[in-house]
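Quick check before the chapter quiz. The format below is the same one you will see on the exam, so make sure you can read both the input and the output lines.
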Amino acid sequence: MKHIFKHKRISAIVSVVPREEYRFDDEYPLFKLTDDKARRFKKMIGLDRHRIAPPEVCSSDLCLYGLQQLLKEGTLKREDIGALLFVSQTPDYFAPPTSNVLHGKLGLGPDVVCLDINQGCAGFAVGLMQAFLLLEITALPKVVLLNGDTGSKQVDRCNRISYPLTGDAGSVTIVERCEAENPIYMDVKNDGSRHKAILIPGGAYRTPASPETLVIREVEEGMRQNLHHVSMDGAAIFNFTMEDVPRQVQEVLAFSGDSLDSIEYFLFHQPNAFILQQMAAKMKIPPAKMPNNIVTLYGNSSSTTIPLVISHNYPAEFLRAQHRVCVSGFGVGLAWLTMVMTLGPLTTCRLVEYEPV
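Here is the expected output.
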Protein backbone atom coordinates (compact mmCIF):
# COMPACT_ATOMS: atom_id res chain seq x y z
CA MET A 1 0.00 0.00 0.00
CA LYS A 2 1.51 3.28 -1.12
CA HIS A 3 0.89 6.68 0.43
CA ILE A 4 2.37 10.19 0.56
CA PHE A 5 2.58 12.04 3.89
CA LYS A 6 2.98 15.82 3.79
CA HIS A 7 3.91 18.58 6.24
CA LYS A 8 5.64 16.14 8.62
CA ARG A 9 9.26 15.86 9.67
CA ILE A 10 11.70 14.17 12.04
CA SER A 11 13.32 16.82 14.24
CA ALA A 12 15.55 14.85 16.66
CA ILE A 13 17.04 11.39 17.15
CA VAL A 14 18.80 9.99 20.21
CA SER A 15 20.01 6.39 20.33
CA VAL A 16 20.86 4.67 23.61
CA VAL A 17 23.04 1.59 24.08
CA PRO A 18 24.10 -0.26 27.25
CA ARG A 19 27.65 0.32 28.46
CA GLU A 20 28.28 -3.43 28.67
CA GLU A 21 30.19 -4.53 25.57
CA TYR A 22 31.05 -8.14 24.75
CA ARG A 23 33.43 -9.35 22.02
CA PHE A 24 32.93 -12.34 19.77
CA ASP A 25 36.57 -13.40 20.21
CA ASP A 26 35.92 -13.87 23.92
CA GLU A 27 32.53 -15.55 23.54
CA TYR A 28 32.91 -18.04 20.71
CA PRO A 29 34.14 -20.93 22.93
CA LEU A 30 30.58 -20.95 24.35
CA PHE A 31 29.31 -21.93 20.89
CA LYS A 32 31.55 -25.01 20.47
CA LEU A 33 33.23 -23.47 17.44
CA THR A 34 36.80 -24.26 16.46
CA ASP A 35 39.15 -21.33 16.00
CA ASP A 36 38.97 -21.74 12.22
CA LYS A 37 35.17 -21.91 12.10
CA ALA A 38 34.90 -18.93 14.42
CA ARG A 39 37.16 -16.83 12.19
CA ARG A 40 35.14 -17.70 9.08
CA PHE A 41 31.81 -17.08 10.79
CA LYS A 42 33.03 -13.75 12.16
CA LYS A 43 34.20 -12.56 8.73
CA MET A 44 31.12 -13.71 6.80
CA ILE A 45 28.48 -12.28 9.16
CA GLY A 46 30.46 -9.21 10.17
CA LEU A 47 30.77 -9.98 13.88
CA ASP A 48 33.04 -8.21 16.31
CA ARG A 49 31.21 -6.97 19.42
CA HIS A 50 27.73 -6.28 20.75
CA ARG A 51 26.03 -4.39 23.58
CA ILE A 52 24.01 -6.45 26.05
CA ALA A 53 21.93 -4.87 28.81
CA PRO A 54 22.07 -6.28 32.36
CA PRO A 55 19.12 -8.56 33.21
CA GLU A 56 17.36 -5.87 35.24
CA VAL A 57 17.44 -3.28 32.43
CA CYS A 58 14.42 -3.28 30.11
CA SER A 59 14.01 -1.69 26.69
CA SER A 60 11.81 0.99 28.27
CA ASP A 61 14.69 1.98 30.58
CA LEU A 62 16.91 2.66 27.57
CA CYS A 63 14.18 4.71 25.86
CA LEU A 64 13.35 6.65 29.02
CA TYR A 65 17.01 7.56 29.49
CA GLY A 66 17.21 9.05 25.99
CA LEU A 67 13.93 10.91 26.44
CA GLN A 68 15.07 12.37 29.75
CA GLN A 69 18.21 13.65 27.99
CA LEU A 70 16.05 15.57 25.49
CA LEU A 71 13.86 16.99 28.26
CA LYS A 72 16.83 17.99 30.38
CA GLU A 73 18.57 19.87 27.57
CA GLY A 74 15.35 21.59 26.50
CA THR A 75 15.18 20.07 23.02
CA LEU A 76 11.76 18.73 24.04
CA LYS A 77 9.29 20.17 26.54
CA ARG A 78 6.81 18.03 28.46
CA GLU A 79 3.91 20.19 27.30
CA ASP A 80 4.86 19.50 23.65
CA ILE A 81 4.44 15.72 24.03
CA GLY A 82 1.14 14.86 22.39
CA ALA A 83 1.72 11.12 22.11
CA LEU A 84 4.07 8.41 23.34
CA LEU A 85 4.43 5.63 20.79
CA PHE A 86 6.41 2.63 22.08
CA VAL A 87 7.51 0.03 19.50
CA SER A 88 9.03 -3.15 20.89
CA GLN A 89 8.83 -6.91 21.19
CA THR A 90 10.30 -6.84 24.69
CA PRO A 91 7.76 -4.83 26.73
CA ASP A 92 7.85 -4.44 30.49
CA TYR A 93 4.63 -6.42 30.94
CA PHE A 94 1.88 -8.17 28.99
CA ALA A 95 -0.35 -5.52 30.59
CA PRO A 96 -0.42 -2.57 30.96
CA PRO A 97 1.10 -1.06 27.79
CA THR A 98 4.67 0.10 28.35
CA SER A 99 3.82 3.52 26.90
CA ASN A 100 1.43 4.01 29.84
CA VAL A 101 4.15 2.98 32.28
CA LEU A 102 6.47 5.59 30.74
CA HIS A 103 3.67 8.17 30.80
CA GLY A 104 3.43 7.69 34.57
CA LYS A 105 7.18 7.88 35.11
CA LEU A 106 7.31 11.15 33.18
CA GLY A 107 4.33 12.64 35.02
CA LEU A 108 2.50 13.55 31.81
CA GLY A 109 -1.05 14.85 31.62
CA PRO A 110 -4.19 12.87 30.76
CA ASP A 111 -4.49 14.21 27.19
CA VAL A 112 -1.29 12.48 26.02
CA VAL A 113 -2.00 9.55 23.70
CA CYS A 114 -0.22 6.30 24.67
CA LEU A 115 0.17 3.46 22.19
CA ASP A 116 2.26 0.27 22.10
CA ILE A 117 3.06 -1.49 18.81
CA ASN A 118 4.29 -5.09 18.86
CA GLN A 119 6.72 -4.95 15.96
CA GLY A 120 10.29 -6.03 15.36
CA CYS A 121 12.82 -5.27 12.64
CA ALA A 122 10.40 -3.16 10.59
CA GLY A 123 9.45 -1.30 13.76
CA PHE A 124 11.21 2.00 13.15
CA ALA A 125 9.56 2.49 9.77
CA VAL A 126 6.21 1.21 11.10
CA GLY A 127 6.54 3.60 14.05
CA LEU A 128 7.20 6.54 11.72
CA MET A 129 4.09 5.66 9.71
CA GLN A 130 1.99 5.62 12.88
CA ALA A 131 3.56 8.85 14.12
CA PHE A 132 2.73 10.62 10.86
CA LEU A 133 -0.85 9.34 11.11
CA LEU A 134 -1.17 10.54 14.71
CA LEU A 135 -0.10 14.03 13.65
CA GLU A 136 -3.27 14.23 11.58
CA ILE A 137 -4.87 14.88 14.99
CA THR A 138 -4.35 18.63 15.06
CA ALA A 139 -4.43 18.80 18.88
CA LEU A 140 -1.21 16.75 19.10
CA PRO A 141 1.88 19.02 19.18
CA LYS A 142 4.57 16.33 18.74
CA VAL A 143 4.83 12.56 18.74
CA VAL A 144 7.62 10.86 20.68
CA LEU A 145 8.50 7.62 18.90
CA LEU A 146 10.27 5.18 21.21
CA ASN A 147 11.92 2.11 19.72
CA GLY A 148 13.53 -0.37 22.08
CA ASP A 149 14.44 -4.01 22.27
CA THR A 150 16.45 -6.13 24.65
CA GLY A 151 16.55 -9.15 22.39
CA SER A 152 19.27 -10.75 24.49
CA LYS A 153 16.45 -11.88 26.81
CA GLN A 154 14.99 -13.90 23.91
CA VAL A 155 18.04 -16.02 23.06
CA ASP A 156 20.24 -18.46 24.90
CA ARG A 157 23.78 -17.26 25.54
CA CYS A 158 25.16 -20.51 24.12
CA ASN A 159 23.26 -20.29 20.81
CA ARG A 160 25.98 -19.79 18.20
CA ILE A 161 23.56 -18.42 15.55
CA SER A 162 21.35 -16.02 17.49
CA TYR A 163 23.37 -14.77 20.43
CA PRO A 164 26.47 -13.31 18.67
CA LEU A 165 24.21 -11.22 16.44
CA THR A 166 21.96 -9.93 19.19
CA GLY A 167 22.23 -6.42 20.59
CA ASP A 168 20.17 -4.33 23.00
CA ALA A 169 19.35 -0.67 22.38
CA GLY A 170 16.71 2.03 22.56
CA SER A 171 15.99 5.19 20.59
CA VAL A 172 13.90 8.34 20.78
CA THR A 173 12.68 10.07 17.62
CA ILE A 174 10.74 13.33 17.74
CA VAL A 175 8.20 13.68 14.94
CA GLU A 176 6.27 16.88 14.30
CA ARG A 177 4.41 18.94 11.72
CA CYS A 178 6.21 21.47 9.52
CA GLU A 179 5.17 24.30 7.20
CA ALA A 180 7.07 22.93 4.21
CA GLU A 181 5.23 20.32 2.13
CA ASN A 182 8.13 17.88 2.61
CA PRO A 183 6.47 14.86 0.91
CA ILE A 184 7.32 11.46 2.41
CA TYR A 185 6.74 8.53 0.07
CA MET A 186 5.87 5.20 1.65
CA ASP A 187 4.97 1.63 0.82
CA VAL A 188 4.02 -0.93 3.49
CA LYS A 189 3.49 -4.66 2.99
CA ASN A 190 2.76 -7.66 5.21
CA ASP A 191 2.58 -11.41 4.60
CA GLY A 192 1.20 -13.26 7.61
CA SER A 193 1.27 -16.56 5.73
CA ARG A 194 5.02 -16.55 6.43
CA HIS A 195 4.76 -15.57 10.11
CA LYS A 196 6.54 -18.74 11.27
CA ALA A 197 9.79 -17.64 9.59
CA ILE A 198 10.60 -15.72 12.80
CA LEU A 199 8.74 -16.99 15.83
CA ILE A 200 8.83 -17.18 19.62
CA PRO A 201 6.44 -20.11 20.07
CA GLY A 202 6.10 -20.20 23.86
CA GLY A 203 5.10 -17.86 26.66
CA ALA A 204 1.89 -16.25 25.44
CA TYR A 205 -1.55 -17.85 25.27
CA ARG A 206 -1.21 -20.12 22.22
CA THR A 207 1.48 -22.02 24.11
CA PRO A 208 1.40 -20.78 27.73
CA ALA A 209 4.53 -20.77 29.86
CA SER A 210 5.11 -24.03 31.72
CA PRO A 211 8.04 -26.04 33.06
CA GLU A 212 8.09 -27.83 29.70
CA THR A 213 8.35 -24.64 27.60
CA LEU A 214 11.30 -23.50 29.74
CA VAL A 215 13.41 -26.61 29.16
CA ILE A 216 16.53 -25.68 27.17
CA ARG A 217 17.43 -28.22 24.50
CA GLU A 218 20.40 -28.47 22.18
CA VAL A 219 18.83 -28.38 18.71
CA GLU A 220 22.21 -29.09 17.17
CA GLU A 221 25.77 -28.65 18.32
CA GLY A 222 26.24 -25.08 19.52
CA MET A 223 22.55 -24.20 19.22
CA ARG A 224 20.51 -24.21 22.45
CA GLN A 225 17.04 -22.83 22.91
CA ASN A 226 13.70 -23.27 24.63
CA LEU A 227 10.23 -22.29 23.44
CA HIS A 228 10.64 -18.76 24.83
CA HIS A 229 13.61 -18.11 22.54
CA VAL A 230 13.54 -16.80 18.98
CA SER A 231 13.26 -19.47 16.31
CA MET A 232 14.23 -18.49 12.75
CA ASP A 233 14.08 -20.06 9.30
CA GLY A 234 17.32 -18.65 7.93
CA ALA A 235 16.75 -19.68 4.31
CA ALA A 236 13.24 -18.17 4.24
CA ILE A 237 14.48 -14.90 5.73
CA PHE A 238 17.37 -14.68 3.29
CA ASN A 239 15.03 -15.20 0.32
CA PHE A 240 12.66 -12.58 1.73
CA THR A 241 15.42 -9.98 2.04
CA MET A 242 16.75 -10.76 -1.44
CA GLU A 243 13.40 -10.75 -3.26
CA ASP A 244 10.62 -8.81 -1.51
CA VAL A 245 12.61 -5.95 -0.01
CA PRO A 246 14.63 -4.93 -3.13
CA ARG A 247 11.43 -5.02 -5.20
CA GLN A 248 9.72 -2.69 -2.75
CA VAL A 249 12.69 -0.30 -2.63
CA GLN A 250 12.69 -0.04 -6.42
CA GLU A 251 8.92 0.60 -6.44
CA VAL A 252 9.17 3.38 -3.84
CA LEU A 253 12.04 5.05 -5.70
CA ALA A 254 9.89 5.03 -8.84
CA PHE A 255 6.91 6.32 -6.82
CA SER A 256 8.92 9.26 -5.45
CA GLY A 257 10.67 10.01 -8.74
CA ASP A 258 14.08 9.24 -7.25
CA SER A 259 17.00 7.17 -8.49
CA LEU A 260 20.03 5.51 -6.94
CA ASP A 261 21.94 8.69 -7.73
CA SER A 262 19.48 11.09 -6.07
CA ILE A 263 19.43 9.14 -2.78
CA GLU A 264 22.38 10.12 -0.59
CA TYR A 265 21.93 7.48 2.13
CA PHE A 266 20.14 4.13 2.19
CA LEU A 267 19.27 3.71 5.86
CA PHE A 268 18.29 0.05 6.15
CA HIS A 269 17.61 -2.27 9.05
CA GLN A 270 20.76 -4.31 9.71
CA PRO A 271 20.17 -8.05 10.31
CA ASN A 272 23.83 -8.81 9.55
CA ALA A 273 26.60 -7.51 7.31
CA PHE A 274 26.38 -10.40 4.83
CA ILE A 275 22.70 -9.85 4.03
CA LEU A 276 23.19 -6.10 3.56
CA GLN A 277 26.17 -6.67 1.27
CA GLN A 278 24.09 -9.02 -0.86
CA MET A 279 21.16 -6.61 -0.94
CA ALA A 280 23.38 -3.69 -1.93
CA ALA A 281 24.98 -5.76 -4.70
CA LYS A 282 21.59 -6.87 -6.05
CA MET A 283 20.22 -3.31 -6.10
CA LYS A 284 23.53 -1.87 -7.35
CA ILE A 285 23.73 0.51 -4.39
CA PRO A 286 27.28 1.82 -3.81
CA PRO A 287 28.55 0.51 -0.44
CA ALA A 288 29.40 4.07 0.66
CA LYS A 289 25.68 4.93 0.50
CA MET A 290 24.51 1.92 2.51
CA PRO A 291 26.38 1.49 5.81
CA ASN A 292 26.38 -2.00 7.34
CA ASN A 293 28.53 -1.57 10.44
CA ILE A 294 25.90 -1.50 13.20
CA VAL A 295 25.69 -5.27 13.80
CA THR A 296 29.49 -5.38 13.87
CA LEU A 297 29.71 -2.70 16.57
CA TYR A 298 26.47 -3.03 18.56
CA GLY A 299 24.58 -6.15 17.41
CA ASN A 300 21.18 -6.49 15.76
CA SER A 301 18.87 -4.53 18.06
CA SER A 302 15.75 -5.05 15.94
CA SER A 303 13.75 -1.83 15.45
CA THR A 304 16.55 0.43 16.71
CA THR A 305 19.18 -0.42 14.08
CA ILE A 306 18.08 2.41 11.75
CA PRO A 307 18.30 5.14 14.42
CA LEU A 308 21.70 3.68 15.31
CA VAL A 309 22.79 3.87 11.65
CA ILE A 310 21.96 7.57 11.67
CA SER A 311 23.29 8.55 15.09
CA HIS A 312 26.50 6.50 14.86
CA ASN A 313 27.50 7.21 11.26
CA TYR A 314 26.07 10.61 10.35
CA PRO A 315 25.35 12.84 13.36
CA ALA A 316 27.20 15.85 11.96
CA GLU A 317 25.72 15.46 8.50
CA PHE A 318 22.11 15.39 9.68
CA LEU A 319 22.63 18.21 12.18
CA ARG A 320 24.08 20.40 9.48
CA ALA A 321 21.90 19.93 6.40
CA GLN A 322 19.11 18.15 4.56
CA HIS A 323 19.77 14.82 2.87
CA ARG A 324 17.68 12.65 0.58
CA VAL A 325 17.32 9.23 2.20
CA CYS A 326 15.66 5.88 1.72
CA VAL A 327 14.59 4.17 4.96
CA SER A 328 13.71 0.48 4.90
CA GLY A 329 12.73 -1.88 7.72
CA PHE A 330 11.93 -5.56 7.24
CA GLY A 331 11.50 -8.68 9.34
CA VAL A 332 9.19 -10.50 11.74
CA GLY A 333 5.59 -10.79 10.62
CA LEU A 334 6.64 -10.84 7.83
CA ALA A 335 6.48 -7.06 7.45
CA TRP A 336 8.42 -4.67 5.26
CA LEU A 337 8.11 -0.89 4.88
CA THR A 338 10.16 1.54 2.82
CA MET A 339 10.09 5.34 2.82
CA VAL A 340 11.82 8.02 0.77
CA MET A 341 12.11 11.42 2.41
CA THR A 342 14.28 14.47 2.97
CA LEU A 343 15.81 14.22 6.45
CA GLY A 344 17.48 17.08 8.35
CA PRO A 345 18.67 19.36 9.61
CA LEU A 346 17.97 17.83 13.02
CA THR A 347 18.12 19.74 16.29
CA THR A 348 19.70 16.71 18.02
CA CYS A 349 21.35 13.62 16.61
CA ARG A 350 23.57 11.56 18.87
CA LEU A 351 24.31 8.20 20.46
CA VAL A 352 24.67 7.89 24.24
CA GLU A 353 25.45 5.13 26.72
CA TYR A 354 22.85 4.22 29.30
CA GLU A 355 23.64 5.25 32.86
CA PRO A 356 21.47 3.63 35.58
CA VAL A 357 19.70 6.25 37.69
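If your answer matched, good. The mean pLDDT is 94.
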